[in-house]
Amino acid sequence: MIKVSVMYPNSPDATFDIDYYCNAHVPMVGEKLGAALKSVSVDSGLAGSGPGESALFLAMGHLIFDSVEDFQHAFGPKTEEIMSDLANFTNIQPQIQISEIKA
Amino acid sequence: MIKVSVMYPNSPDATFDIDYYCNAHVPMVGEKLGAALKSVSVDSGLAGSGPGESALFLAMGHLIFDSVEDFQHAFGPKTEEIMSDLANFTNIQPQIQISEIKA
Predict the structure, then answer these.
(1) Chain centre to alpha carbon of residue B75
(2) What is the pLDDT of residues B43-100, one digit of tens each?
(3) Of A26, A90, B3, B25, whose CB is crowded by the most CB atoms within 10 A?
(4) CA A25-A29-A94 angle, 5° bins
(5) What is the pLDDT of residues B20-54, one digit of tens each?
(6) In chain B, what are the helix, strand and coil shares in percent, each to the nearest 5?
């Protein structure tokens, strides 16, 4: 199983509408990617590790697929449709990472 | 539910022993934190989003607790013991983020 983490870095002028993300963006992505997408989880950044420290990422979405190939086949043809929705909930350019789920 | 993400940034000279992490560090952390720790997941970075791009983080450990208070009560007294094990598997200073699990 692999995880595609879409991470939205925090900054002083960053905006992120977590309600739109959870209630509109993630369901739309689920519809576009179909059965290849096994599950999604969403984290909303609360804090860093030190007192008064901000979260590094305002939000993170984690998408689970059986393999990198499954992700690429499902996401490739839908990239533009999915990415064009970002302006509806954030001014942040997300950072994307693909990981192997070890545990 | 909250998630404490311990993220190990990638860099050219970064080292990380994922086998030690999964088989020794995470079990030790589980023992120290006890019942407050609800579950742990481990991601091993494979790639970034572009062709040939490296993963932003070599590894990420995600620890789930019922609340920030539960995490603080469990982790506080054990911080030194847990952090002193890092030298056994990495030369990276991890970045830590606390998130609310929205989905």
Answers:
(1) 13
(2) 999 999 888 899 999 999 999 999 999 999 999 999 999 999 999 999 999 999 999 9
(3) B3
(4) 65
(5) 999 999 999 999 999 999 999 999 999 998 888 99
(6) 35, 35, 30
Measure the CA–CA gap between B96 and B85, rounded to whole angstroms.
16
Return all residues near A46 (Cβ < 8 A) that are at least 6 apart. Answer: A55, B2, B68, B98, B99, B100
CA A54, CA A70: separation in Å to the nearest integer? 35
State both tokens at A50: 């030190």
The secondary structure of B51-64 as a DSSP string is: TTPPPSEEEEEEEE
- Shortest Cα–Cα distance, A56 to chain B (Å): 6
CB contact under 8 A, A45 and B97: yes
Cβ neighbour number for residue B101 with a 10 Å cutoff: 13
CA B51 to chain centre: 27
The pLDDT assigned to A50 comes to: 81
Question: Which of B40, B97, B103 is the closest to A48 by Cβ?
Answer: B97
The pLDDT, as a whole number, for residue B50 is: 81
Q: Which among B50, B51, B36, B45 has a CA at the least distance from the CA of B14?
A: B45
CA distance A18 to A79: 21
Give residue A49's pLDDT: 85
Nearest CB to A42 within list B47, B95, B103: B103
